[in-house]
Structures are given as structure tokens and as C-alpha cells.
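Practice set, problem 2.
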Amino acid sequence: MAEELEDTEERFWKEDLVYVKTEDDSYRGWRLELLKEKLSSRVEEKLLMCTFCKGLLREACICQEEFKCRICIPRGAPWQPVKVNREIVNEKMIRCPLKGSGCDWSYTVKTVLHHLDECKFLSVVCPLGCAVLEGERKGKVVKIERRHILEHQIDSCPLRKIICEFCNDKVEACWMNPHLEVCEDFPVPCPNGCGTNGKEGMKRRDIPAHLSNECPLQIIQCIYWNNGCREEMERRELKHHEKESLHIHFRLSMIDMQDKLDTAISQLAKATERISTLEEQNQELSTKVSIGEFEWKIGNVKMKILRKETSYSDPFYVGLYKCQGRIVWDFANTGKVGCFILIMKGNYDHMLHWPIKYKWTFVLLNQINNEDNFVYSDEVTKKDLDKYPNSFKRPAKLRNGGFGTRTFISNTGILEEKYYREHNITLQITVKQLSIF
């Protein structure tokens, strides 16, 4: 039923069936042997047969006083189409090229290619794209006569889907055996041969639990292994071992309990010492005033202003408080640059007092003579703490909302030559923690 293609280059085209194939692998006139009735006379043969390929004229032309197929004419030679010959050829009766396979169709030359599009005896590629799976032809595509395609897809195609009788998954037929080797519901015997569930065995998925909890032949350790008993035995021998070694297990348990008690006392002493140290550190932090300083060099400022972007600095610390600077280059379309301080989530937040109160200073450096810097300074007030509590409390996410000034400097002012050099500005940020008690 199925025919293997000998090679990827030896493809089974309709041209192979109906045209004359020459030594240069080109297809010329129609194959004369397909005619239902042979050419009746020498005159008809001269009029309808190509003098080059000896096939029935295909796109009949006259060249050098001879009838030739259009594609048989030498390059550069003068030629002229012959319409009458083409019409006669097209009406000639021709058999199906697959008559030897059982097709009894016959009709005019001009219809044979259309017939092959439907011929039940023409070999075509399986719609599922199956190929030879083993042997020397492994990987080669398989062609089947069109009349057998449906039967092939249902019964023999290696890529057809079939249902595993154990897990009900749909698996391609060629992969069913590999699937059964890993199928979780496939019945397998106990690896130890204990005979549980008889000859049918148990589902593959249940084997690990069976070995861990049930199998009488599984080698296990004594339950006092961690106490020092180094005996291993089959599970069915465990009770006998416990009975015979009762006094040994009791002594090992007492030694183990004493070791655990000593360890617990030691750990408790270390924990108490650690708590005392943390309390001292926490008390010190609550009274200590911390200052954080950060120099922020920012590039491509003009483009950031045009795009109305927002920029974030690298994190820096004020004592153990983790902070970050933020610049809004055109705050609310006012033409002003907004500068803010953000409190970030840190590793020491559980040891710190909240909310945090601070004083901040932004210094835009004069890059020409290091004088006449642009300075803005302010601090958080009690009113700010009440009005914007989310900015100063312990962060629950990556960072809190920022607090600072919306009108640090104008967009045009920050681009003055003394501040804006080589497309960069430098902003110094100083944050001083203030006590709120």
C-alpha cells in the first residue's frame, strides 16, 4: 500500500508521469505511449511529433522548418507558434499514466494534468506528514495512493493519535511503546519482588510510596539510626530487631536526649546574648543622628527633559535607612524640575524607628568654577508627617512615595552652561535624619 521515496531528489511529480524527460532532467513533449490510439500515419507523426524530444508536441512551434516543442527550441533560434498543431494535440485522447496501477481513465491531453489532481491511484504524501521511522530509510517521507489515504490515517499511520489504555492520554502511535515505559498508570511489579497485588502489580506512580511505606522486602534503617544504632534490615525484620535490641535502644535514647538538652541550653544562652546585643544597638540607633551623602552624575539631560522622563538614582544610606533620589524632569508640565527623596525597603527596617523625619539639601554643581552652586534645602515638618504618612512610614513595597520639592529649578535654568557640561549635570544630595521625639 505504501511506497517509499528512494531519495529526496527523486520526487514523484506529475511531470514524470506525462512528459518526456531528457538527459538534462528537463521535461519536453507529451509521452507518446500514453496516447489511446497511436499516430495514424507518417504525415500525422510529422505534424504532431517534436523532432527533438520525439514526444507529442507541447506548445507547438515551427523552427528551422521543423515542428518542435516550445522548450525544445535552441536558445537564440528564430521560431513561430503553430496554433493549429496545439489544438490538434490538445484534443488527442490519452490514457491515465497510472493505468498499470489500475486507473482506467482516458480523455483529451489538455485534461490529463487536472485528472492527476484527483486520480485515486496517484501516490501522495500523508496529510499527517509521516515518515519511515527505522532502518536505512529512517526519516524519508512516505507516499500512499490517494485511494488508501483514509485507511492509512485510521489504521497504519505512525503519527495517528491513539489512546493509552492505562492513562487515557492521546499518544502518536509511533511513540506508544516509549510512552508505556514511563506511563504513570502502567502496571509494574515491585522491584523487590514482594508480590504485592499479585501478577498485575501496581501503578508505576505508586511504586515510590510502596517502597517507602509498605514493601516487606525493602531494606530500611533502624528507627534509632540517628541515635547511634547502625543496623539495616528488611522491613519485615524490624519488629524482631526492636525486640532483641530494646536495652541498647534505651541507652542510646538517653544519651541522645542528654545531647539535645545540652545543645538547647547552649542555643538559648546564645539567643539571650543576641537579644541583649540587638536591644543595645536599637537603643543606640534611636538616639543617633545619621547623615547620608550622595553625588549623582546624570547624562543626556536635554533629551530627558524633552521626553518628560523620570530618573532614579542608585540607592544610598542614611545610617541604616535605605534611600534613593528621584527627578521628574518636567513636573506636571510646569516647566520645572522636581527633586524628591524616597525611602526604600531595606534589610534593617525591623530595627529602626518609624516614621522617619529628615532634612534634605539638593546642590546643583557649577561645573565651570565650582562656585555659585544652585542650592535648595528644606526639612520634613510635623504637618508633613500627618499629611503624607505613606512617604515616611516603614516601606511595605520596594519604595515609598517621594517627598521633596516640585520646583527645584526651571528646565531652562538647569541647562545653563555652568551647570550643563558635555550633556551632563552633577547633583549632590545630603539627607540628615531628624529626631521626632
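Problem 2, part (b): a different protein.
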Amino acid sequence: MPKKARELSAIEVKRLTAPGLFAVGGVAGLHLQVTKSGARSWVLRVKVGAKRRDIGLGGYPDVPLTDARAKARAKREQIAAGIDPVEERRAARLSLLAQTQRLTFDEATEKFLALKRHEFRNPKHAAQWESTLATYAAPVIGRKRVDEITLAHIEDMLTRDALWTNKTETAKRLRGRVEKVLDWATAGGHRTGDNPARWRGNLDARLPNPGKVATKGHHAALPIDDMPRFKRHLAAMEGSGARCLEFAILTATRSREAKGARWAEIDLDAKLWTIPAERMKARKEHRVPLSRAAVGLLKALPRHEGTDLVFPSARGKLLSENTLTAVIKRMDGAIPEGQGYRDPNTAGIVTTHGFRSTFRDWAGERTAYPGDICEMALAHTIKNKAEAAYRRGDLLEKRRHLMQDWAKFCAEGTAQGNATPIRRASDA
């Protein structure tokens, strides 16, 4: 049997300052370890099964002799009960580490957006992601760890306040965005298993098909014959918003494309506006032939110091989303009731995007221009993949005639485009 160590007193232990390992007695295997630097700590040398263990019990004098003996007795009792204190401590440490590595959904969203922000089409797109998740996801699952989120939580989020039925398009985007955040969390090892926000084979068995819940609404559009009246009224309006709206109408572009127009994109001599791919919905560069009216509008505009924006706000920034809408509402409110700028199908005030519909209706009903030229003027993607593969040009010169006829119709109200020849007789 090993020799039993003499039980040292607290004073004797205090005098142990030379480097080494000293048995202090009281509990078998309890030692005071003194390093060359003078640091002292408690070590319990004990055999656990077939393994020799040195179990640390804390530093001296922070842990006094009496406490060290109490800790040593407790460890020996664990060993007698079949528990390995070292393995138990390691498991506890790993469990704590795992918990600190588990993200909440809000934290996962923040990290995901920081990583993916460069992939968004523009800052507005990124802001839409943030807004959707903050408004609808955060109140329901934001504080939950990503590994705790279940199908029931996602279903609750999508159906709360009848979101899935009353705001179906928003709910669809929300579901897709939550799915992507959780996919990212799974790939990063923060969660395992199926994605509870997945639609196919998952939520499609719990929620009605979004295509059958609500019918897509169309943007309120101005009747063709009201266009000249609206254009004359708009020309009399002042402000950057009014000029931007007028430019958007003359070019048949989307409001965000017109608002983001920069002088560096415009060649007044060539009567051409080249919108870079990153600002286009289809992520493809779009060349817009400028009519004489559009060129005249641009030449009359002042250049603003400190910004290259063609239509800046008063602070030299991008116009807000509601600026162009506000112009239309002021115009509608300035004329007698019943003579306003309304869509006859919905009775709603026309929208900025609706003028693209007016342009398309005019081109299709009042002119002989082929549909592909009209669609290209609107920068619509060719849905027929075979046709898209063979289409190399953008029909710029043909579209130049189209946009000139459109500008003339907006100003005069005459169907100038219906007599425009598409091909010369000699070309047939």
C-alpha cells in the first residue's frame, strides 16, 4: 500500500514555496503544485478506472486548504460512483460552447445579410429583405435559436394576422427569405435537419396554394386617350419629381430606373440613355433611344453640384419611392371630381408603373409596330428560350422610331405610330 501522507496544517502549506509537487494529506492524492514562477495550485492525483488523472482543484491561496480537501473528497465520491470528473467537465464545457455558438434567428439574419448584401440588385432590394424579416419574422422567431425553429413556428409566422391570405405576395417573399436564412444556418453547422420553411413537401401540406388564395392585381393605368391631357398637366408641374415622372413616361421605363438616372449614362448627342445591368430588373444592360421631347427635357434641367443624379432630391439624394406617386395624387386632386386620372377598371388613381401599361396598350392598339419591338422597349425578358438564344441585337433604331411616335402621341394625341412603316417595300 502507498505510504499515507502526513496531514499538513495551513501554516505548513503556506511555507511550501520551492518548485515541486507536495502531498498535503487529509485526502489521499491531494497535492500542492508549485511552479518555477512561484504559482501554486491544487492537484488531486487519482486513478479513474485504468487511467491516472491529475485533476485541478483551483489556485492557492484563492482556494484555501480546507476547501481544497472538501473538493478532493467530492471528486473521490464521484469516482466511487463511477463518474469520471475530467470527462464530465469536458462534456459540460463542450455543451456550454455549443450553446454559445447557436445563433438566434435575428443573429443569423444579420450575418446572412452581411454576407449576401453584394448579391442584391440595389440597396433598395437589401432594405426590402431587412424590412420583411424585421416586420414579420422577428416578432415570432427572432429570439429563438435557429435549431429550435419548427414547422409550427413558421406556420404561425405566415398565418398571424391572416398574412397568408390578406398579403399573399408579401407572405410568399417572407417564406422564401426565411428559408434562405435557415439554409445558411444549416450549412454553417448552427442547426440540422430539414428546413421548416421549405414549401414543397412541407408547408404546401399545411397552407393553401398562394396562386389560389389571391388574384394578382394590376397596376392602375391611364386610358390611352387620357394620356395627352395628363402629359400637358404634368408639363406644367414643377419639381424634380414631376420631371422624373415625365422622363419615365417618355422613355417607358420603370420608376426606379428613371429615379436612378445619371448624367454619365446619357449621351445627348447620340440621343441615347444606357442603363447599366445592375440597375435593371433583368440584370442586363438596356439602351433607351431618346425622343426629341426627352432630349429637350434633359437639356432644360440644371446640373446639381455634388451629384451625378439627373433627378436628385432637394438634398442631392435619390428621390424617395413616394415622390412620383405624390405628384400624380396632387394632379388628380387639382381637377374636378370625375375628371381625375383614374383607371376605369379599378377606379384607383393611376400609378407610375401603370404608364408602362398605357404605353404598351397604345403600341399594340394604335400602331403597327411588331410586339417584339414593343416588348424590348419595355426591357421585358424574352420568355421563349429558343428565340432569346438567337436574338443578338436590341432593335435600337426601330425602337427609336417607336419612342418618337410615343412622344408625339403624348404631346398631340394623334395616332402617329399607326402609319409608321416597319419595312420598306424593297425589303420584302
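Answer key, part (b): The chain has three domains: 10-100, 105-213, 224-427. The chain has a mean pLDDT of 86.
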